[in-house]
């Protein structure tokens, strides 16, 4: 199960980087460090690095999504949902934020909200959701 989650997270990370608008250089460096920390399994450092990226660029939606994914992997679903929701506020067309929030709602047993988010993701990006 952990390998499946890791593979899913890696795909989301790749899609996040490709789909997101550019942040400032320092924020991008912190974001990259967060991804490297996650790859090493250092979730505490990954959260710290993504948080630093957010402090450097509060509009960095991808940093919120990735930090939310780390929280979700740590079963801290409320923080994950908060981060995905903030990413959606920053970029209402961010399909992967809806997919991730939907997955988290599903894990919490809230299938109604999960379906709503999955449906929105499909509307935004039918080939990727």
Model description:
- With about 130 residues, the protein is mostly helical.
- Helix content is about 80%, strand content about 0%.
- The protein has 7 helices and no strands.
- The longest helix is centred in the N-terminal third of the chain and has 18 residues.
Q: What composes the largest sheet? A: none
The overall strand count is 0
Number of helices: 7
Instruction: Assign a percent range to the helix content.
Output: over 70%
Low-confidence stretches: 1-19
- Radius of gyration from the alpha-carbon trace, in angstroms: 13 Å
User: How many angstroms does the end-to-end distance come to?
Assistant: 21 Å
SS strand fraction:
under 5%
The SSE order reads HHHHHHH
Q: What's the shape?
A: globular
Structural class label: mainly alpha
- If you average the pLDDT, what whole number results? 88
């Amino acid at each position: 199960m952990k390998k499946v989650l890791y593979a899913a997270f890696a795909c989301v990370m790749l899609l996040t980087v490709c789909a997101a608008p550019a942040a400032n250089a320092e924020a991008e460096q912190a974001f990259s460090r967060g991804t490297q920390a996650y790859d090493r399994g250092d979730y505490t450092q990954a959260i710290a690095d993504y948080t630093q990226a957010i402090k450097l660029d509060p509009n960095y939606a991808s940093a919120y999504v990735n930090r939310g994914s780390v929280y979700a992997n740590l079963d801290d679903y409320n923080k994950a949902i908060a981060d995905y929701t903030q990413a959606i506020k920053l970029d209402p067309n961010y399909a992967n934020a809806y997919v991730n929030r939907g997955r988290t709602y599903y894990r919490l047993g809230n299938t109604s909200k999960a379906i709503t988010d999955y449906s929105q993701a499909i509307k935004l990006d039918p080939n990727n959701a």
